[in-house]
Every structure is written in C-alpha cells, then in structure tokens.
Amino acid sequence: MTDAVSPLSVPDVRPASSSSARSLPAGLAAAASGWIVPALILALWQAGSSLGYVPETLLPSPTSVLSAAWRLTRSGELPTNIGISFCRAMAGLIVGGGIGLAFGLANGLSKLSEAFSDSTLQMVRNVPHLALIPLVIVWFGIDEGAKLFLVALGVFFPVYVNTLHGVRSVDPQLLEMAQSYGMGRTALFRRVVLPGALPSIFVGLRYALGVMWLTLIVAETIAAQSGVGYMAMQAREFMMTDVVVLSILIYALLGKLADVVVRALERAFLPWRPSFFGG
Amino acid sequence: MALPTTAATATRPEVAPFEAQRGAPIAARGLTKAYGAKPVLRGLDLSVSEGEFLAVVGRSGCGKSTLLRLLAGLEAPTQGQIAVGYRAETDRRTIARVMFQEPRLLPWARVLANVEVGLGADRRSASGRKRALEALASVGLADRANDWPSVLSGGQKQRVALARALVSRPRFLALDEPLGALDALTRIEMQRLIETAWRREGFTAVLVTHDVAEAVALADRIVLVEQGAIALDVTVELPRPRHRGAPDFGALEERILDRLLGAGEA
Predict the structure, then answer these.
(1) Is residue A78 part of a domain?
(2) Exposure string (b/e) for A174-183, b if CB count within 10 Å is 16 or more?
(3) Chain B hits for A193, Cβ within 8 Å
(4) CATH no. for residue B260?
(5) How far apart are CA B103 and CA A47, in angstroms?
(6) Could you tell me the pTM of the whole model?
C-alpha cells in the first residue's frame, strides 16, 4: 500500500511550480516518467517468463495474466467481483469515516465530549482490528455485515485521530482574530475551524484508504463468497496462479485509483495551499 | 465582557455629540493584570481623548502589549476598569478593531473575503462587497482581490489586515506592533498608510511599538510604560506631515530613547 504514511505527515508536498507556465509536452513527459520503472519491471518479468527462467506455475507471465483478465471479463466474473469489492470498500469507508469524522469534530470542539469518549476510543484503537476476525465471524457469519464492520472499524481511527488533531491544531491566533471581529460559534466553525482542519482530515482520509483495502483483502480471503479476495482464494485452490496475480494487480490498481480520487478532492477543496499549485 | 458599574467605575468622559467625533474616548483606571502570581500591569491609569493618536513605547516585557489587549477587550483585567466610547456602547467588538503583530489572514479565503471578515454580520448586505473593495483600494490592493494570501508579501498581508480593520469603520483602532516584522521601507509606507487612514476616518488610535522613531512620526502623544506603570507621558507638538530629518524630531526621539535606556541601566 502506498498510503502507509504517518497520520500526521503532510502529503504530497511538491515544489510550487505554476502549471500554466509549464509547456504541455514537458507536463506529459513528467507524467510519463512515473511509469518508466513499472514498465521496465513488466518487460523484465515478461522476458524472464518467455525465456523460461520463471516457471509459469509459480509466477505466470504478464501475457497469461492479461489473458486471464480477458477470460474472466468475458465470463462476467471479474467485473462482478470488482463491483462487489468496491461497494464493500465504499460502504465501510462511508460508515467508518463518517463516524470518525463526527467523533473527531465533536471531541475537538467539546471538552465534555472528549472527556467522555476519547480515552475509550484510544483504548479500542490499540486493539488491532483484524484480531477481531474470529469474533466477527461468530457474530456476523461470513455475511456482508462482517466485512462492513471490519472495514468501518479500520477506517474509523485514522479519520478520527486526524480530524481531532486538525481541529485542535487550528491556529489560536486566527481564532482570536475571528472572535475579536465578532464571529459567532457557527461562523467560527464554518469559516475558521473546519477549513483549518481540512488538510489534516485529508491526511486521515488517505491513511484510511490504505487501511480500507488492507482490511477488505484480509476479510475477503478469510470470510467471503464473492469479491476479488474470494476470487483469488478460489483460484489458489485450483492452482490458477494467473488469476491470483491478477487479483493482486487489481487491488493495486484500486488502491491507486483511490489515491488519484483523493488528490483530485484535495485540489478541489484546498485550492489555497501553495503545495497544490503544481497540480 | 460587561463593563463594571460599581462606584469605582472609571469616569466616562462627559457625553459628547454622538456622531460629532468618530473617535471613541478611552478611560482606564487602576488597571492591574497578573498572570498567576506575576503582575504585568500595576494599577495603571490612562485616558485617551476622542480621535487622539497615542503611542505606547517600552522595553520588551514592560506590559505595553498587555495594556493594549486589555483596552481592545481581548483580555479582562485582574482589577480596574476600562471604558471605551460613550454610554451604551458596551460591546467593544463593535467599535474596536485590532491590528495584530502578524497579519492573521485566513489562508483559505481570498484577499477580498479576508477583508469582508471585518464587516461581521454586514458581510451579506448589499453594500458589503462594495465597502470591502473600497477598503482594499484605500490600501492600494484593489487588483489583488482574488488572490490567495499566500502569494502576497509580508507588507501586502499587513495592508490587507489594515483594510480588514478599517472596513467596519472602527471608532478605536488598536495596533499591536503591526509593523515590527516589516523591512524599513515597507514600514515607512505602512506608517503613511495608517496616518492617512487615521486622518480620514478620525478614529482613536493606540499604537504599541518598539520603535521610538515610529512613535514620534505618528503619535499625538507618547507614553512610556515601565514595570507595569506609566513612567513618561509626552505630547508631540510637531506639525504634520513630520519629517524624520527635522531637528526637533530627532531631539524628541533622543529624549525618549535616553529615558528608555536609562531605565535599563537603573
């Protein structure tokens, strides 16, 4: 997972260059340069398989993975499973992230709420959520509820911790300024606290996406009857390594896609940040 | 904060025609402020007449910034009373504005929106936007209305902060070393801008500064704060606009500096 950044670090700090000044070919070249290494690895892998250095049963060649993708797409198995996994991931993210955001804001704004819930949440946070799998299977079986519960629990904490941190670290000088200009509580929240906490909330969201896929992979390989992880486990039973590798690649692509979406959201919601000038 | 109405209330200035003077008079009596056991101000008395430009100078830690924060209503005194303005104007947030040491602009709001913060509830009124643009033009930044604060220079940011303070037409403007972080040239430009605004709007101004020359250039009256009390109170008789090269300018500056330095040696 590429998202394993520390929850408090600032993501994607690029040198502020003006994108309008940058010529189009140069921009394309910069975008393409990121793909050089993956392409090179792919080429070496294919060459190794074709020349017989890599046995097909252990690691199938890129072309056989590709043909497996084609086969499963035509049968409808692949799109169905991707769709199911994607829906599970999103549902878990929305439920867990939503609750995390609500608790983060409430505990950041209200001392009473924090005194009441923060230490409990911090205690629960120290339990690795995947350790709950046996219990969750007992509770929910291998139902959708199990996956939803695990993913929601996994994404809750990064969103909660970073939202709380974001609200707490809003510049007290800005708060004093806003109060001296007579801003009421609602205006203060909407115009100072929330925008001030937003960069940190996005850090939490990115971290949550990493946890989200990780949790889903584990949950689907252990307790599921559909989804990409289930497809991979089924394929392993029949030694269809091409499908196993395909599943792994699909997880990687879904992870990358989530990252791209968050970047786009950050550009839309944090246009004032100098670090996002470069697009 | 509610103003006290006890027998010891600082005497409010005699009632003057309400709109005749834009500036609000300020009266403070027996101001004491302590953080924990450490007193910063010790029973300080001060009055500023309407429309007056007062400069407060002193060494670091003498309590001059604390004095300003109390006058502006950012903090409450441990003891003593403050009255700003005439009767019935209990809420200082509607008549007093503060320019801080830092610009304190909202980084996520464009320059114009930052100025509109100064309008408070008037922000949504029909004339609000127009007034904000006028205030921005008065500090020479009309063309930067749609920029983010992060692309402005330090001096430009303070000009936006000045426009934000002026847009609500305050009757008392508290300036807490707002020019301290600027380079010498920008500083002089800003001083002119503040002086022009003060002459145009007629508000009462209290400027806290380290820079004695700045105090002499701008103020009608200079008070020197030492160990939490006023140690010197000088009226500046120099005609405006003032020229730094003039002999009486230098003489007054030196007199105050001597007093400041002498206090350090004592």
Answers:
(1) yes
(2) bbbbbebbbb
(3) none
(4) 3.40.50.300
(5) 61
(6) 0.80
Domain that includes residue A206, residue range:
62-273
A62: tokens are 């890129």
3-state SS class at B99: strand
Chain A residues closer than 8 Å to B117 by CB? 177-178, 181, 183, 191
User: Would you say residue B7 lies in a domain?
Assistant: no
Dihedral (Cα; B4, B10, B16, B21), 10-degree rounding:
-90
Residue A142's CATH number? 1.10.3720.10
Q: Which two structure tokens, joined as six digits, stand for A170?
A: 């809003």
Write out pLDDT tens, residues A21-54: 445 677 778 778 888 998 999 899 999 988 988 8
* Residue B49: CB atoms within 10 Å: 16
Summarize pLDDT for A111-159 with one digit per residue, the tens. 899 888 988 998 888 889 999 888 988 998 878 889 999 999 999 999 9
Is A68 inside any structural domain?
yes
**Chain B interface includes A130 (CB < 8 A):** no
Cβ-Cβ contacts under 8 Å, B181 against chain A? none
Q: End-to-end alpha-carbon separation of chain B, Å?
A: 39
Q: Which residues of B touch A (CB under 8 A)?
A: 72-74, 93-94, 97-98, 100, 102, 104, 106-109, 117-118, 120-121, 148-151, 164, 168
User: How many domains are contained in chain A?
Assistant: 1
Looking at the partner chain, which of B72, B73, B104 has a beta carbon nearest the beta carbon of A173? Answer: B104
Return the structure tokens found at B115.
């100025």
Count of structural domains, chain B: 1
Instruction: State whether A271 and B109 contact (CB < 8 Å).
Output: no
